[in-house]
Amino acid sequence: MEVTTLTDVTDGATAKGEQTRELILSTALRMFREQGYGKTTMRAIAGEAGVSVGNAYYYFGSKEHLMQAYYDLLVAQHREAVEPILQAEKSFTARMTGVLLAWLEVAAPYHEFAGTFFKTAADPNSPLSPFSEQSAPAREAGIEIFRQVAEGSDLKLPADLRAELPELLWLLEMAVVLFWVHDKSPDLRRTTSLVNRAVPLVDRLLRLTRLPVVRGIATDIVGLIKAVKP
Amino acid sequence: MEVTTLTDVTDGATAKGEQTRELILSTALRMFREQGYGKTTMRAIAGEAGVSVGNAYYYFGSKEHLMQAYYDLLVAQHREAVEPILQAEKSFTARMTGVLLAWLEVAAPYHEFAGTFFKTAADPNSPLSPFSEQSAPAREAGIEIFRQVAEGSDLKLPADLRAELPELLWLLEMAVVLFWVHDKSPDLRRTTSLVNRAVPLVDRLLRLTRLPVVRGIATDIVGLIKAVKP
DNA sequence: AGGGCTACTTGAACATGTTCAAAAACTTGG
DNA sequence: CCAAGTTTTTGAACATGTTCAAGTAGCCCT
Questions:
Q1: H-state helical runs in chain A
Q2: Are B154 and B90 within 8 A, CB to CB?
Q3: pLDDT (tens digit, 9 = 90+) per residue, A166-179?
Q4: CA gap B19, A13 in Å, rounded
Q5: B158 by DSSP, 3-state: which?
Q6: For A75-98, how does the pLDDT look when each residue is reduced to its tens digit (9 = 90+)?
Q7: For site-directed labelling of B216, which of A65, A75, A90, B57 has its Cα 20 to 30 A away?
Q8: Which nucleotide's C1' atom has the smallest distance to the CA of A7?
Q9: Which H helix or E strand runs over B172?
Q10: Which residues of B touch A127 (CB under 8 A)?
Q11: Distance from CA of B123 to the nearest CA of A (A)
Q12: Do A122 and B131 touch (CB under 8 A)?
């Protein structure tokens, strides 16, 4: 992230432009955090950053894109926070719980306005939806974390289930996030307790697939998921 | 719903007012369907209905409230559509599949703009969220349907699971709706196939709770749900 | 240095959801 | 039927996200 006086040859973005971009983004995020997404107007962001409104739109296609940029930041922070956990822990439960709790910790400062972000998650027309084409890279990165969670762990699973597991765990994370967004309890106790109790259950469930009866149904579930994926 | 020339004593609403309200709502719904939610402006609705913008706001607190009103309508239609199914079918699979497919059928004309509606589902600050305080009546009504699905069926379940089942099935419906909203396949084939294949699996899963090992984990899952509910 | 190119910046104009004070229409008690 | 009160209706004003034509600044080539 060095700023030089030379033109940045990649893209067409210059060092100065990059600086302005960062200024606008950091100002926006601070204001989102301090007074919420809804109460922060584009004019206010531009004013506070000392640029014109149009300039903000030069770098960010819309107000929602500012949120998207924040989300990318969050994902990066999460990836960092998760590394030591994946180094240290070997059991599936510890790895999975660690990853989910790390998310809660990283995202905590933004809990109040996170709801606004995940509003777009359910909107299939928004390019910011985690299921959209355009979010594919971020989604892949998220799934990759759970691939590591599964691979480095002590889980032994049938091949078909093992192949789908990372995506399933990512979906579980989405569900936790949805729960988290709605959690109004002090210190987010309910979400924390959900994670701490649900993960061991998932672990047990997964290990149950050794039983022939359970394995049969697990195979069918995996088959359904594969059939129904776009 | 008789319209008389006498003042409606309840509330303070008159017959004429009710007529205007309906006019605005039906106009809005038609336009939502025809050109989508986003492209339908409040001015256009008012213009088409032959009233002023302010008048629309007299009856509906916001544009989203117009959608909420539509949702209520949908729920009512679904309840009606479901009745013959619950009369005729006795097996859990048939009942559950019927109820879910009935939803798809009732909601189909609005598929394109439904996404906008369920955007609000993830927003904890919106009173229109299905999880919010204000949606409690609609949510209860929805859960009630699944209570009937379970009670009238041939399922035999442990008491604790049986008690939580309606709410769990309602959650499943929410998941199906989320999937449906994102489904771009022709004739919504993917969602239909999801329902047709997932319900039998759920059936099998539920019956597996007779096995002691599975029953143990099922009990724990139910315990977790109860603990984590607000 | 100057011309030309690109990147950047501006601010006014626009679109649209929302509010509100005032007017109109209606109802009711006398 | 009138006056007072209530409900309904209006339309202009407002707030805010977004667009865009025009201007500015920096860089490079000759």
A1: 15-35, 42-49, 53-59, 63-88, 92-107, 111-119, 136-151, 159-182, 189-208, 212-228
A2: yes
A3: 999 999 999 999 89
A4: 58
A5: coil
A6: 899 999 999 999 999 999 999 999
A7: A90
A8: D27
A9: helix B159-182
A10: none
A11: 5
A12: no
